[in-house]
Amino acid sequence: METILTIQNLNKRYGRLQALKNVTFEIKKGNVYGILGPNGSGKSTTLGIVLNVVNKTSGTYSWFDGKVATHDALKKVGAIIERPNFYPYMTAEQNLKLVCNIKNINYTKIEEKLELVGLIERKDSKFSTFSLGMKQRLAIASALLNDPEILILDEPTNGLDPQGIHQIRAIIKHIAAQGTTILLASHLLDEVEKVCSHVVVLQKGAVLYSGLVDAISANEGFFELQADDTENLMAVLQLHPDIEKINSEEGKLFVYLKKDLKASDLNRFLFEKNISVNHLVKRKNSLEEQFLELTKK
């Protein structure tokens, strides 16, 4: 699979403040990546460096397996790293025509991209009449005019109402389904979990994790069990070598694992110990639980 972006040991200092500390990760073609972290974790700085608007202190990055110089590579990139900045007295279509003129793009792309972001019926409306969500969607249309191989978004749903958030996320999923690689920075766990296939977790400028969202940490999941005799169930579960800890809450036992364990294997183990359960469900830790565990470590 083609590597779109490679970042190696990237460092950035602002005086005494080290904003990035040996940041290393790769972006592969066709996936949706989230850079996840609280404000001040280095997300925007990382994007600024690879987009050539922030100078790095040390380290390297390369586009498209290093085969394309940064200046030429950025022609294949669409990006929104600041609030949408269009002329308020011009219509949506006029603003996009201006972008086409600057980037030497054919006007035929305008209607296609307005359709994609759900603004085709408002193409003749002035930008000043748009809601914040519509402004953000127009910015996405603008970033897509050159049919980029990768779309980079910095906090794409920041400040939007629930409907606006839903619309932007739906658009991101649709763009990804068409084969465009996406890299978005967000401090919202919910956003990354719903939209992204891969995640890079940053904290205070350092990478804590880079990989699949579903495997953000050693996530063996946990079991939720219930039986008529809770005390006996607890005593038998404590004998199992793969169980790390057991919590009791409202008549249910929550069983956390040292390593992966199938529900069928646990059920068989209990049956052999003459324990009959009336409720046994295996659950996956939420991204929030995994993120909190990761940052705590």
Give a written overview of the molecule.
This protein folds into two domains: 215 residues, 3-Layer(aba) Sandwich (Rossmann fold); 75 residues, Alpha-Beta Plaits, CATH 3.30.70. It is built from ten helices and 13 strands. Helix 5 packs parallel to helix 6. The longest helix is centred in the middle third of the chain and has 16 residues. The chain has a six-stranded mixed β-sheet, sandwiched between helices. The protein has 297 residues and is of the alpha/beta class.
Low-confidence stretches: none
The global form is elongated
% residues in beta strands: 25-35%
Q: How is the largest sheet built, in terms of strand order?
A: 5-6-7-3-8-9
- Rg is 24 Å
CATH C-level of the largest domain: Alpha Beta
Instruction: Estimate percent helicity.
Output: 25-40%
Protein name: ATP-binding cassette domain-containing protein
Keywords: ATP-binding, Nucleotide-binding, Transport
GO molecular function, one term: ATP binding
Family: Belongs to the ABC transporter superfamily.
How is this structure best summarized?
The protein is α/β, with parallel strands linked by helices.
Question: What labels would you give this structure?
Answer:
297 residues; alpha/beta; Rossmann fold; Alpha-Beta Plaits; 2 domains; six-stranded mixed beta sheet; 13 strands; 32% helix; 29% strand; elongated; ABC_transporter-like_CS; P-loop_NTPase; ATP hydrolysis activity
